[in-house]
Amino acid sequence: MSLDRLLFPRPETPRVSVERTPVEATCPSCDGTNVARYPVANYQGPRMVVKCQDCFTHLAVTRPEPEDHWPAWRSPTRDWAPSRLG
Fold first, then answer.
1. Which residues contact 78 (CB under 8 A, 6 or more apart)?
2. The organism sits in which domain of life (predicted)?
3. Is the peptide bond before 71 cis (omega within 30 degrees of 0)?
4. Alpha-carbon span 56 to 79, nearest angstrom
5. Contact at 8 Å (CB) between 65 and 74?
6. pLDDT tens column, 27-74
7. Can you tell me the distance from the alpha carbon of 20 to that of 51, in angstroms, rounded to the nearest whole number?
8. End-to-end CA distance of the chain
9. Which residues lie below 8 Å from residue 31, measured CB to CB, with a gap of 6+?
10. Which residues contact 60 (CB under 8 A, 6 or more apart)?
């Protein structure tokens, strides 16, 4: 893990937003093609979603990969195997 995952500056703008990466897909609900992938925080923890930007239908929800840099901070021991008790 690189140090940039542990230290990050205070936002310089009054509003924080995320980049929504366009995805080539068609929404099954509205047949729209305005589909994007971006990070969210929900009851399952940090996730990456692919959603229709017209009707907000979820097309996919996955765990973030290290290259997604989401969440902005994560524990350095996140990928360690748990130790055995006793």
1. none
2. Bacteria
3. yes
4. 32
5. no
6. 999 999 999 999 998 888 889 999 999 999 999 999 998 888 888 776
7. 10
8. 30
9. none
10. 37, 49, 50
Note the pTM of the prediction, 2 decimals: 0.70
The single-letter code of the amino acid at 65 is E
CA distance 75 to 46: 13
- Per the listing, tokens 């006793």 go with 86
Which residue matches tokens 């990466």?
A: 21
What's the token pair of residue 66? 């290290």
Read off the DSSP letter of residue 30.
T
Q: How far apart are CA 31 and CA 17, in angstroms?
A: 26
